[in-house]
Queue: 2 jobs
Job 1
Amino acid sequence: MFLLIVVFALNSAFHAWRHGWLVVNKLSIISLLFSVFYTFFSLYNPKFPSSLFLLLLRPHKAFDKKMTAPRTIINKLGMISDKCHQAAWQLKDPSNLAVTRILFGFLMAVDIHFERGFAEVDHRFGGFTQCHFPLFDFVKPLTFQWMCLVYLLMWLGACGIMVGYNFKLSCLSFIIPYWYILILDKTSWNNHSYLYGLLSILLLFSSANHYCSIDAWINPDIRNKPVPNWNYLLVKFQIFLLYFYAGVKKMDPEWLGGYSMKNLGSHWVFTPFKIFLTEETIEYYMVHIGGFVLDLTVGVWLLWPKSRPLALFFATSFHMMNAQLFTIGMFPYVCLATLPVFCDDDWPKRWIAKCPGLLRRCLPDATKIATTTTRKNGGKYSAFKITLMGLYVVTQLVLPWSHSVTQGYNNWTNGLYGYSWDMMVHAWETMHVVVTVKDKTTGRLNYLDTEVFVRNDKWVGHADMVYQYAHCVKDRLEAVNMTDVAIYVDVWRSLNGRFQQRLIDPRVNLLEAEWSPFRPTPWLMPLLTELSAWRQKLTQLERTVFNWSDSSRVAFVADFPGLSMDNYVPEGVTNATIQVLEGQVELSIENGTQSYLLNANDTASLPSRVMHKITTTSTVPACYMYTFIGPATASESGNARRNSAKKETSHRDVSLMTPFAKSLALVGQSILNLVFGIPLVMHNSK
């Protein structure tokens, strides 16, 4: 498919130069979509017309006066429709789809207690002052008791999917709460959460309960009954797109340059490769280049029977390594669970047939069924079903590239949310966040603890959520009679090893700022790409500082002309210095009692237990580095203590059954409160 699209793009560029962009660009989109369909279905039908391929690669011929009558085009399109219809309604064995259903249902039943947060409902929705970040502002959380029941319904739905009981109702019981909770909190959005929701929708419209299910055991009419091929095709398409688009998104200088994933070469999963490769070589060639090639091509190799065994080996190894390298919940295991769907539709029955007689009696029926026929009309509402499938496919093809429309959700990069499939391309690091509340009546400035109204800090990297946060804080302050206020947020972040810099303009009152999902956010500070060339040197400087001692620290900062940063050197920090790398800054200590003008390569010592301000005085952005020995700030020491306490708690709660027990206890409390009015027992989330 990739080669087909590349050939198409080169061909379109040539004919655009020859015939003009206006005509070709409109046809290019249609031709590209048809090219994807052609490649996908031709893998299942070798007789798919090669003449159609030529037609798709030369859309301009439709406008050529020498071309045959339009009836030829109509005939070609008719051939496409017939081939798609035959591929979609060809009957297949249901056993492979049943395996996907069982594994997906089981993994979701586990995931709900962990990443979905069933065991932490009281922390997520038990506080009346907590801020939420819904996709649509009219979506509100229910009370804690009812949210527990919503989670219970979702979990029962996942169990119903797994065992195949009241399959359609179970799917709806899972889908509705799942998407409600997902839309309710954008801080939990990521690619795999989006994927789970899509797979559940595909299962809803499938016949995945025709084999190895309670429904099939109860109802002989559907037991071991063939399923239409589109049940498989849509799942294969979605998984193929997951890999292929992840590879396309990695065609980025950040990823191909090796800046996205750092410090992975030292992980134990790469130990066998360290015999003949350095850690730097592992990070670049195995993680970046290898990940790019695998994502871009593994979907094609899975579709081709001859290369499928090798593709399954590499894909399985890839996901098992990811499960150890990253904390991404059930995602690697869901990907592993969907890999068998690319195999023959009756492979589970062939395996069961090879089992010993006694074991085979305990397993589902391995009787093979005739699946060579094709439904002629696809059953009732076949045209409507085909239309829905086409809309789904087109939506999934287009949505990851929709950021030119939803510009309000873009920041330094496009596709910050999970429907983009740009997995691991951008690595973020947050230095600190300052939330300033100004009383307009008195002019007094108050600094707000950023952990008060939120559960995590994922909101700081998204302009839309920063905007929601400011208005949520305003509502909370009104409860304590602070009504006439201004709120300013100063976020310092680093993207892929660059300098720490401001993301939000700290001079803008967010309560008066404008934000629209369809327009660029005017109060976002631009990424200082002109300083990107420093990254190699920053790595060298960092290594030099770390070689001083085990307690040496370094922070690289860049700022815009005319802006200042206030900082405090806490007690216990020694040898704190600032060195200007580029531009000019003014260092002010103790409210201006001491002031120094520093140019490139100038260095100044910073006294401890004293505030200092650094103002960029040059006409271009300035960059500098802090070096010191000891903890960076008092807040960092506090965070270290809190993290240590959390680790101790996690070591005590080593049992995997603990989240299940917590979830059950929360449901029990909620039911007792709703039915008998027994008071709730809330737990501290800190």
Job 2
Amino acid sequence: YPVPVHVQNSINNALGGSVDNAQLYTRFYLFENTIGTTREPVLDQKYVKLATSFQLVFQLRSSENIYIPYLRMQYTTRQWNELRLTNRADSLNTTTADIDNDATHYPAITWETYYFANQLLYHILFFVFFVIFLVIGVGLTILESCIFLKKKRGHGALDIEFSLKLIFFVVKNLSNAIFAVLFFQCLFWFWFFKNQRSALLLLPLDVDLIPYYICLPLGFILKLLQILIQTHVQTRLDLFFIDWEKTRGKIIENEGRSATGNVPISIWRTIYVARAWKKLSLKRQVSLEITLLFTLFFITGIGLIDLSSTFPNWNIKFGSLLDTLNIGYHPLLRYAIFSMVYVLTWGLFFVFKKYFWFRFIHNPITQFIDFCSVANISVLLLTERYFGYYIHGESVHQYSDTNMKEFNQNLYMEKEDAVLRRGLVADSPAQEQVFQIFLTEQFRNMYQQKLLIPLHEERAKAKNRYNLLSKTAKVDNTADNASGPLQEGGITVGFDERRKRKTQFEQIRLWKFLNPNWQRAPVESLYDAYTDLNEYLKGFFNKMRIDQQNIREMQLTNRLGIPPNLKKEPSSILYIDHKNSFTKSLLWDMETTFVVFNIFAFALFDLIFMQIPYIASIQSAFLAVFIVYLLNAALFLIRKYMSHWNTANKTLLDQRFL
């Protein structure tokens, strides 16, 4: 059967048009010189027509059946004097490199074999999966918003806090829906394309990948926005360290005849607990560097990335065969390979850390709780207005700030079970120390009045003092060039004085930039408020320990995050938290978020680098992994800076010791 020829740029066919309505031919030529024929000799002809590209097109019809193949080609017109005559004398002086690098004088002909199929089923599946996961995401967003509003109990329901939370829920669930759609779609193409024994499935072409090209950067941007919002929220939480240490008595002077006050309680235990908290807030369960290193080893060192080639077979020799056959790579298969390898690598390390390392070797969470108990410091963390977490760190010994001998004796007595057990619940064998706390309106108002409102007022005063100083010290740049004195309010200000003011202002501005906690100056009223709040919280939790009715076990609704109806409760409620869920406010609990983000980032930048000439597949994977590492490092530095600022600001501790 004669193969039809489709000349794309002929007079009767529009370039890029469909073959269905095109005029087809039964023959073609490589060189045609009649277009420029004149009565002059052949060498004086002006134009010739040359064939430049051929594509043998196969369209899949059904299982192992194809439509009639056809030859798609294009012509180009050149001036005769542009072409080099290839007689024997010229060919002896012409090298292969000259021909390859001179497309004008030596036009090249390209040949491709083109396979495609109707991808209507692909678009339908993509749309169905997207709608299903989008509906699930919308449902989760509505549920989480309702739970958040119930925790707020109608206080400023439509304020900035709720708007930020709503945006967070939307971008989180939408990005997760996009990831799920892309992951399962790419996994579908990878599995069925590589396992087919006959021509059943062909990979989508670029024109069919438009939904993928839209969803991939959209998912990356949404997940990045989610991480930034979550970092902002988690680094602005209300944090307070409750010091349970008692004074050792009064200071006696003048040979025991007069008492000048109580023995001061050392602040160093609080500083060390704050340092440990800051360090814990920046910990991750699985090392990013090790995960990326092993992932890179599997996809490039072993060569699993070569499975993303358009060769429909598992039995392929990696590396050289792909270069020899000039087989390309498909973005859907590369996404499937990296996501599977990264998820499996991360999953193996996560299972190892959670069920072996953290259980038998070293667990930073439980060690921080133990450290609080040894230091006699409790932690109150309020993640929302009426909800938060409480880590009970009151020591079972009389004093924690003691010498080495007494300190080791206390630990030995606790080991031999010679003292009361730790925890807020009286002598409980489970030693409950972590709780979820639901606050009443009265408690929250008391917390605001005793610490947060005075803190904001002092920061506002400090800011006003700085603005006043900067206003008096700031000098217009045009005044520096004035030759004579400057009049300010009837007072003559000389050039040297203006220069001194400007230098002073620049030093203050630099100091403000290097010291983010500049707005809080040492104010005695703030430290009095801190001490007052510390005594109030000690009394509050002592009352909770005496009256055990408000310390409860978590029910199913509480585990799902649904808060109780505190309007019917006379006081705040503590729910025993056996799973240490206060880690939800730390970087510790953002592992899955960063897994999805890293997959999005790798797929996006790998797709970008693959479009750049002279960058091979392995080089593109290396560059994409490096970009992923840089993004994670930048996000970590942002979180570290904001966490440092929040800890110093909310606890009134000097940031230089954190």
